[in-house]
Amino acid sequence: MATSVQQQKRTRRPFFFDPRFAIGLALVIASVVGVYAIVRTADHTTQVYAARHPLVAGQRFSADDLVVRSVQLGSVGGKYLATDELPGDGAVATRSVPEGELVPASAIGTAAVENETSVVVRVKGDVSASVTPGTSVDVWSAARTEHDRYDPPAVLVDGATVVRVVEADGMVASSDGLSVEVRVPKKKVAAVLEAIANADAISLVPDVSGAVASGDVAEQSGK
User: Fold this and answer.
1) Is residue 70 part of a domain?
2) E strands present in 29-153
3) Is the pTM of this model over 0.90?
């Protein structure tokens, strides 16, 4: 019996701690934590609204006019309209937002609709291909005089917004020009209607200064 105990004492090895084991274990833990942090960061998206179709300045819109996008915004998240920030009764666009682009939080309001209204103008001659819904344009008018002559053109309304361009087969369209619906300040309506009634030559010139910026991350929203 004593011999058996002595043999167990001789075969029992002392515990030896290998630092390499601790280093390897620490590296594995650090790798797992790092991968988890990367996945969490990559999946940190925000749900914001994008325009389902072009929104024009002064237009009242609701959730039906928008689509939800999950995008990574980072520090600029507060600059865009989140899904929980749209009023239940809708909002008014204070400036144009092209189709598919994120809606800036600064582009919604309530007062614009009270100060603007839509009118349809007959444009003399061709219209630039860049004149599309949401485009900011200057409305020029040349007063008609005797013998179908015209005075030099002048700006009738600056910074008007195109609502729609009537197609060639539309009810309003005809062979003598193209009809375009634009939003103008109410204080300019009388001048526009007078130009229309007098058959003045009306032209639309794109207003580059009024163009809407696409936003820092608009391309992430998709189409």
Assistant:
1) yes
2) 46-51, 60-61, 66-71, 91-93, 108-109, 116-123, 136-142
3) no
